Amino acid sequence: MYLNVYSDKVETSKKAAKKAADLLNRAIAIKGQAVFVLATGVSQLKFLSHLVEIDYIDWTKTTAFHLDEYVGLSPDHKASFRKYLDENFLDQLNVSTVHKIKGEKENPRDECVRLNNIIKDLAIDVVFLGIGENGHIAFNDPPADFDTDDPFIVVELDRRCREQQVGEGWFDSVEDVPKRAISMSVRQIMGARNIVCTVPGKRKAEAVKTCLTGEVSPEQPASILLRHDNAHFYLDRESASLLDT
User: For strand 180-184 and strand 68-70, is the pairing parallel, antiparallel, or unpaired?
Assistant: First the structure.
């Protein structure tokens, strides 16, 4: 684990984007292409905006996967992660191949099968993600499944996770937030060669402390990242405020 703490959200996001770019370019230099995974949410906005501005990545040599998506949500809903990724990242770049999660499909387990057949033979070079207020990574809410080998799974969203989505302005009420999602599994995330975890903001401080200083447990899903040799955490002063740094 590599822990990086900077003064504010802007610097944190810039440093995380620079690291992400270096990892993508390293993969391209070694094997001619890079495979990466995109996260969404308020915490990723500045990170993605800075990554888009970096002009020395050959995006035509990259393949992207989508980390998670709500079940049953229209792709044009304001909370749709596909809409988010298109508007904040993909529409501005020429990524060669993008595998999006089609959460509106009638049977989400069939969508998982489709994605799992695509990703099963690919090595993921880097996953971009954050940590939820309840300690989740992707939509793996506590208690997270640390054991499944399936790359994409259908998960139940806990109330605190759904409340976070309302607090961030994506939905008007908890009742409006879907109760299920398709998520990249914990094991699939942990199988990536590198992880860039960007977690700015005071409201994430408790989750950061619990997951980075407590026991590794499904009750604190992000704690599993402590066991990854190349997990790079990017925090600002606020999110790191409860750590002894």
Answer: antiparallel
> How much is the pTM?
0.96
The answer to whether residue 209 sits within a structural domain is no
Residue 182 phi, psi (nearest 5): -100, 130
Q: Which helix (H) or strand (E) holds 194?
A: strand 194-199
49: left (phi over 0), alpha (psi -120 to 50) or beta: alpha
**Residue 182 belongs to some domain of the structure:** yes
Distance, in Å, from the CA atom of 49 to the CA atom of 41, rounded to the nearest integer, reads 13
DSSP one-letter code for 158: P
For residue 157, the enclosing domain spans 2-128+140-200+218-235
Tens-place pLDDT, residues 79-97: 999 999 999 999 999 999 9
Q: In what order do the strands lie in the sheet with 68-70?
A: 68-70, 180-184, 152-156
* pLDDT per residue as tens digits for the range 233-242: 999 999 999 9
Cα 115 to Cα 68, 76, 98, 158, 198, distances in angstroms: 11, 21, 11, 24, 25
Q: What angle do CA 230, 137, 3 make, to 5 degrees?
A: 35
**Would residue 138 be called left, alpha or beta, if left means φ above 0 and alpha means ψ between -120 and 50 degrees?**
left
User: Phi/psi at 189 (nearest 5 deg)?
Assistant: -60, -45
The encoded tokens of residue 34 equal: 């890079």
Residue 38 lies inside a defined structural domain of this protein: yes
Question: What six digits make up the tokens of 66?
Answer: 């989508």
